[in-house]
Design a protein that fits this description.
Blueprint lengths: L1 E2 L2 E3 L2 E3 L5 E6 L4 E7 L3 H19 L3 H17 L1 H12 L3 H18 L2 H4 L3 E7 L2 E9 L2 E5 L7 H12 L3 E5 L6 H12 L7 E3 L4 H9 L3 E7 L2 H13 L3 E5 L4 E5 L5 H13 L9 E7 L1 H16 L19 H16 L3 E4 L18 E4 L6 H4 L6 E7 L2 H10 L2 E2 L1 E5 L3 H10 L4 E4 L15 E2 L2 E2 L6 H7 L1 E9 L17
Parallel strand pairs: 1-5, 8-9, 8-11, 9-10, 11-12, 13-14, 13-19, 14-17, 16-17, 19-20
Antiparallel strand pairs: 2-3, 4-5, 6-7, 7-23, 12-22, 15-16, 18-21
The structure holds nicotinamide-adenine-dinucleotide.
Length: 497
């Protein structure tokens, strides 16, 4: 069993203090120890970032982008190795791990356009001999705190863009599956990133609090559960930091009576059970408009949920691996119990699944509930497991009211052939990311990602154009070069044309 290291100032650093266990969820065995950084370790990462900043901010954007071009190549060359590490510690299938890496690489590609995205704006002759422009300048030292469920993609939402914008970045990845995140950061060093521009420090609340309290850290990006997002947002904004904190979700799919049901069922299976439901964009509620749609949906889902191919994530060709920890599996099982006792109809029960050769793994089969109602905890709360709840309503308006009343507003989608219904849904639904016949509407890297309501605390979404704004501050410069012979009289009225 090895002790994972931090990456600080371009060096792998061993810390012999507090540690946490990292499991292989397919076997249930502890495979690594991860250090939980002390305040001194966090401070050393901050010091190295501060020291690297003056040179990095003055490095031409095109040179910064060249590092990202090499980084992209290294990520592609190492896809198999990275996917294996993700799968070993997270439990998701190799194909799913490769998919998240590809979506992460999209963000590196966007960062490669640094000279274009940092061009700024220029206006000549805004007054006599006066030109004006606005510049996008870096903030300095910024930090990111990321969740376990996308150990490659979510960090890549953050630091490639922050770094090409001229900032130095400290990443605190999830302590549950840190190895792929660390390897990816090492590949960025190999691509030629100067030391200190990116550091990776592992840890728990102690490390996060040290980042929140450090005056040198100017901005924090967070992705994780809503209670922690809210905590980080309130504590860090109190200290004057810029914060974007993306939280949890409960994503609904609306099935209209005219939907192409077979295709909707295929889409729902992947969106509800892919990655064991451990995605912030996973569909966890199917809202059926009319009993006929609900009955037909249940009839088609039941055999497919029962037939899910489940096993160790590192085995090719599976639909689902295990949950990330035994605690996560027990929490999801607890919700299933709770759903039954609150009166929902458990149509498929995924509990008690045992995989031959992996009896100690954290496995659960897919579960399906029918006749779920809005006051039930399984409806209100994020389960974050392979559980799909079917809610029956009588109209599109009732479906939309249900979604708009929910505390979360991350993603949603509608399955329909009716353009008018789809348009109404897109216009009126109070959710940040909406799909029309697209179950997981995760925006591509040149748009931005973010939910509404209690799924996001802050004003700017992650990555894309919002990411550029988040990691830069604008400076408006007005410049006059008077003609040599002219005399300028004092002007006491407010300057205007
Ligand atoms: P989590 O909130 O437990 O942990 C996220 C990060 O916060 C980790 O780095 C963790 O070490 C740190 N952390 C945990 N407890 C803390 C505390 N008390 N104080 C300070 N920091 C703390 O989330 P998770 O279980 O790793 O990830 C799953 C959650 O993330 C789900 O709720 C999911 O919906 C959400 N998520 C949201 C998005 C999104 O874009 N909205 C994307 C991915 C995941």
């Amino acid at each position: 069993m090895s002790l994972i290291q931090h990456l600080i100032n371009g060096q792998l650093v061993t810390e012999n203090g507090r540690t946490a266990d990292v499991y292989n969820p397919s076997t249930g065995q502890v495979i690594h120890q991860v250090p939980l950084a002390s305040r001194e370790t966090i401070q050393s990462a901050i010091d190295s970032a501060k020291a690297a900043f003056p040179t990095w901010r003055n490095t031409p954007p095109a040179k910064r982008a060249q590092v990202m071009f090499r980084f992209k190549q290294l990520l592609e060359q190492n896809e198999a190795r990275i996917s294996q590490l993700i799968s070993e510690e997270h439990g998701k299938t190799l194909e799913d791990a490769a998919g998240e890496l590809k979506r992460g690489i999209e963000n590196v590609e966007y960062a490669c356009s640094a000279p274009e995205i940092l061009k700024g704006e220029y206006s000549r002759n805004v007054g006599p001999n006066i030109d004006a422009w606005s510049d996008f300048q870096p903030l300095g030292v910024v930090a990111g705190i990321t969740p376990f469920n996308f150990p490659a993609m979510v960090p890549l939402w953050m630091y490639p863009l922050a770094i090409v914008c001229g900032n130095c970045f400290i990443l605190k990845p999830s302590e549950r599956d840190p190895s792929s995140t660390l390897l990816i950061a090492q590949l960025l060093q190999e691509a030629g990133l100067p030391k200190g521009v990116l550091s990776v420090v592992h840890g728990d609340k102690g490390a996060v609090d040290a980042l929140i309290e450090a005056p040198e850290v100017k901005a924090l990006s967070f992705v994780g559960s809503t209670p922690i997002a809210e905590y980080i947002y309130s504590e860090a904004t109190k200290r004057g930091k810029r914060v974007q904190a993306l939280g949890g979700a409960k994503n609904h799919a609306v099935l209209m009576p005219d939907a192409d049901l077979d295709n909707a069922v295929s889409a729902l299976m992947g969106a509800a059970y892919g990655s064991c439901g451990e995605r912030c964009m996973a569909i966890s509620v199917a809202v059926c408009v009319g009993d006929q749609v609900a009955d037909a949906l249940i009839a088609k889902l039941v055999p497919q949920v029962k037939a899910l191919k489940i096993g160790a994530g590192t085995t090719c060709g599976l639909d689902m691996g295990p949950l990330v920890t035994g605690q996560a599996r027990d929490k999801v099982s607890g919700y299933i119990e709770e759903g039954v006792s609150s009166g929902a109809e458990l149509v498929v029960d995924g509990r008690g699944l045992s995989i031959a050769g992996h009896e100690d793994g954290f496995f659960l089969g897919g579960s399906l509930f029918d006749r779920v109602t809005p006051e039930m905890r399984i409806y209100k709360e994020e389960i974050f497991g392979p559980v799909l709840c079917v809610v029956r309503v009588s109209s599109l308006e009732a479906a939309m009211q249900l979604i708009n009343d929910h505390e979360y507003g991350n993603g949603t989608c509608i399955f329909t052939r009716d353009g008018e219904a789809a348009r109404l849904f897109c216009d009126e639904i109070e959710v940040g990311m909406v799909g029309v016949n697209v179950p997981l509407p995760v925006p591509v890297a040149y748009h931005s990602f973010g939910g509404w309501k209690r799924s996001l605390f802050g004003d700017l979404h992650a990555y894309g154009p919002d990411g550029v704004r988040f990691y830069t501050r604008r400076k408006a410069i007005t410049q006059r070069w008077p003609q040599r012979a002219s005399h300028e009289a004092s002007q006491f009225a407010f300057p205007s044309l």
